Amino acid sequence: MTETAILAEDLRKTYGDVVAVDRISLAVPRATVLGLLGANGAGKTTMVRMLTTVLKPDSGKGTVNGFDVQHQQQAVRRSIGLAGQYAAVDENLTGRENLVLVGRLTHIGKAAARQRADELLDQFHLTDAGNRPVRTYSGGMRRRLDLGAALVTHPPVLFLDEPTTGLDPASRLDLWEVIETLVADGTTVLLTTQYLEEADRLADNIVVIDKGLIAAEGTAKQLKSRLGDTVIEFELASPQIAVVAAELLGGTVAAGTIVRLVMSNGPSTLREALNRLSSADVVPAHVALREPTLDDVFLTLTGNSGANS
Predict the structure, then answer these.
(1) pLDDT at residue 116 tops 80
(2) How far apart are CA 240 and CA 223, in angstroms?
(3) Separation of first and last alpha carbons in the chain
(4) Is-contact 160 190, C-beta < 8 A?
(5) Are 207 and 37 in contact (CB under 8 A)?
(6) pTM
């Protein structure tokens, strides 16, 4: 069995004149997490859909668990679990009934499907709600149930397309812990996310997609180190002054009135930047120095302040 659980080679997908994915290649070793980051419309979900046989690539090749996504679709589907951006569960069934139904649809015997449903309800802290209709569940409970449904068949490869979108911080942490346990037990995960701290915590490797192309890839540490040792942020009195300050300093307006610089020689750069602002009669309200984050990486690579879906 191949040590690479997910492999994409020059995958390309277009919609008319729009190139959604432009010859992207990536490899995900077994029992690791690949974090796929990108702004809205960058191509993340299209990549997931091609690798899970939902969409047919225009060109290129993809394999999952050693099976070709175009020519061995049934084998691919038997190897994967998929949880999308929205919980795909039946609101009129109970949580237990949803899980049993998935088991039966995947040809698990009735007794085995019930046993597996009980295991997953326990794993996702849903046992007490197992006999309640899903329409009575909170958003976090539905997301946990949806992830449980993706795990009914013990798939070796799991695709999670923004699994924690809309969850409160406590529910998000719960799901992170479940994902970490799955990977520790040998599951391979491809994760798309709009939460940069999620990729920072979970991903062994990160691929940043921008306009259908790979903008950067590496570990979180490697991506951060590419920017330099220090982030300097200046808070200005208004967005208009922030634009002026960004032009003076060669920085980026990160959020309204914040101008951000990423440098390897923070202290000397700070002195020089303050001198330039002073000469232009621009006085920052606040100045901060810190280490780079994935948010800084994303902003620098794509010009967006977050990896929204």
Answers:
(1) yes
(2) 31
(3) 33
(4) yes
(5) yes
(6) 0.79
